[in-house]
Amino acid sequence: MRPLVFEEPYARPALASRALAAFALAVALIGVFASRAGLDPPAALAVLGGSLGLALAAVVCALAAFVVVWRTGRRGAGRAGAGLLLALALLAYPAYVLAQAARAPRLLDLTTDLSNPPVFSASRAAFAARGAPPPIPSVAERLAQAKAYPKILPMLLDLEVPEAFAALRRAAQAAGWTIVEAIPPGGRMRIGHIEAIARSPILGLPSYVTIRVRPVTEQTRVDVRSASRFAPVDFGVNARNIKAFEAALERQVDRKQ
Question: How far is it, in rounded angstroms, from Cα 92 to Cα 53?
Fold first, then answer.
């Protein structure tokens, strides 16, 4: 008669760790898809915050499981390890973003013209796309921008205003932005503007962009303003929006020459 072999049971924290990590991944994916589908940004961020909380709980359970396995000899080290790795993978990118945000100035609105920032359109089309226009940055915010982003400056094009406006539209489209309104330069001041929405690559969170174009002596001046609203800091999004647009505009101008 063969002796019965009794296997040590699994450590409960090990089972909980893997289950929590898997659930955190599912919640994170739901949050990402919901955000990209146009869910209200604060609601999408709340879902993602819940997934990070679950991932942290999975880390705690994994560490507890290692202690239980070490002390009692129970099974589950592999499952705890899998839960720990998955949870840390989910936490890695948010931790990087938060570290970047901790070093960034608390600004939600950047402009290439600190003395006279472009004003967002209050038209019906623009209001329907983004709600009320973002307010003009305060003097303190503009001074903080000048210190933090000294290289964000107006752009001067050696193009006539109509050609410049056409290049601006193409550059906005090349940057992947959704153009909400495009008013060609006109009137006595011959000033035009383009309103657009830029979205972050992973979550699709919106930033609102306005581009002002006006003639100066034998050139066309372009000013860009990018604003976000859904966090205490912009995580560098608005600076990247302006830089991406400058690069796209440079490519468009080079093609004309």
Answer: 13
Question: For the segment 74-114, what is each residue's pLDDT rounded down to a tens digit?
Answer: 888 899 999 999 999 999 988 887 887 777 778 899 999 99
Strands 206-216 and 219-227: antiparallel
CA distance 241 to 175: 8
All structural domains of the chain with their residue ranges? 12-103, 109-256
pLDDT in tens, 166-213: 999 999 999 999 999 999 988 777 899 999 999 988 888 889 999 999
**3 Cβ contact list (under 8 Å, min separation 6):** none
Tell me the pLDDT tens digit for each residue of 206-246. Answer: 899 999 999 988 889 999 999 988 766 778 889 999 999 99
C-alpha dist (Å) from residue 133 to 123, 130, 137, 171, 192: 9, 7, 12, 23, 17
Give 116's contacts (C-beta < 8 A, 6+ positions apart).
none
Question: Three-class SS of residue 83?
Answer: helix
Positive or negative, the CA dihedral 102, 107, 113, 118 is positive
Host H or E run for residue 103: helix 77-103
Could you say which architecture CATH assigns to the domain 109-256? Answer: 2-Layer Sandwich (3.30)
